[in-house]
Amino acid sequence: MILVTGGAGFIGSNFVLDWLSQESEGVINLDKLTYAGNLSNLEAVRNDERHVFVHGDIGDQALVEKLLVEHKPRAIVHFAAESHVDRSIHGPAAFIETNVNGTFALLEAAKSYWTKLEAPERTEFRFLHVSTDEVYGSLGPSDPPFSETNAYEPNSPYSASKAASDHLVRAYHHTYGLPTLTTNCSNNYGPFHFPEKLIPLIIANARAGKPLPIYGDGQQIRDWLYVKDHCAAIRRVLDSGRLGETYNIGGWNEKANLDVVHTLCDILDQLAPRQQGGSYREQITYVADRPGHDRRYAIDARKIERELRWKPVETFETGIGKTVQWYLDNTQWVQNVQSGDYMKWMERNYDQRDSERKQA
Ligand code: NAD
Ligand code: DAU
């Protein structure tokens, strides 16, 4: 078995579904079910006995130790985190609690379990930490993409908390010999992406006839990767990655936010035209910028390609088409996650931006 943390979230649930469809091993899925965790993402494996869901916190070291002793997983794949940059600006404490203290507790539990293992289980055990390209900070227009040797320069409470967790993982390898692997990935998109993030938010708002909010001038650049390509990369690193190493994962798809939004509008115009006519582009609205907004991210993914023979399968064009179609086919999923808490977040984040913009 493997233990996955955060397997009811966006990337974690895609990973669990992919894993169970491709591997014979089972998954223990430990998730706190915060606003971002959603068991309906895992509906397809509800009757699969290889999937054991545990509702709990990675910060509960005793619980994690108990799970490790009981199920004896050969690896931990650690996704659980607070993941939204804007939320980290409004309330950083939860990010420190889960991303830093939670990862620390998880590492302690993993060390305690791994130390007591005997060969060959001890040699084969892996702790794979899923992290982000945001730890490297922001690139200028002509800077080369982030490589694994770039200095850490996190700029938001979210990226600072992820950077801290990366450093803890590194330290547990160097100090205690814990067999760790770290991946730093660029922006993901695809099914089950929570509609507080740019791509699913734009699709949901477009369909609901609401404004499509563009922060600042919309010329910030992100490097987009289809989520199933990320899952395949993680499986490859888990299988063949060198211990203590970090691997950057990206899609070689740098796009300005405004271009991404235009693409979404154009696809929606084709697949689900507005009843009143005209293009969804007419709903685009410029709002106040994100404080400390990183201008550009881009990943140099040559190391994982060279060493582990991984390359993305999807282009941005194929991946974004599949994504829009998934959201059109799963409107009930979107409606279900747009609960009371979601509405409060939308008011908090966007009403303030509107008034800041009007004052400017
Ligand atoms: P998400 O917010 O969609 O899901 C996070 C999951 O973690 C949720 O199911 C939530 O319930 C769970 N969780 C939160 N706190 C927990 C705790 N204390 N104990 C147990 N479970 C907890 O996040 P995501 O977008 O799927 O990201 C997953 C991981 O990948 C994160 O570590 C993130 O930093 C990293 N990452 C994300 C992206 C991206 O574009 N989304 C890119 C690179 C890296
Ligand atoms: O780079 C990897 C990171 O990508 C992950 O580590 C994070 O967990 C993930 O959330 C994502 O972070 P971003 O901040 O890049 O993603 P988000 O979808 O929130 O925003 C993408 C870009 O779109 C960013 O430049 C901000 C902008 N944006 C976002 C929202 C929600 C808008 O212009 N309007 C919006 O309403």
UniProtKB/TrEMBL annotation:
SUPFAM superfamilies linked to this entry: NAD(P)-binding Rossmann-fold domains
Lineage top rank: taxon: Bacteria
Enzyme kind, highest EC tier: lyase
NAD(P)-binding domain sequence ranges: 3-322
Cofactor field: NAD(+)
Chain intervals with Polar residues compositional bias: 147-158
Keywords, sorted A to Z: Lyase, NAD
Catalysis: reaction(s): dTDP-alpha-D-glucose = dTDP-4-dehydro-6-deoxy-alpha-D-glucose + H2O
Keyword Ribonucleoprotein applies: no
Disordered, as annotated region: 139-158
Its EC number(s): 4.2.1.46
UniProt-listed PANTHER family: DTDP-D-GLUCOSE 4,6-DEHYDRATASE-RELATED
Family to which the UniProt record says this protein belongs: Belongs to the NAD(P)-dependent epimerase/dehydratase family. dTDP-glucose dehydratase subfamily.
Protein name per Swiss-Prot or TrEMBL: dTDP-glucose 4,6-dehydratase
Classification lineage: Bacteria, Pseudomonadati, Pseudomonadota, Betaproteobacteria, Burkholderiales
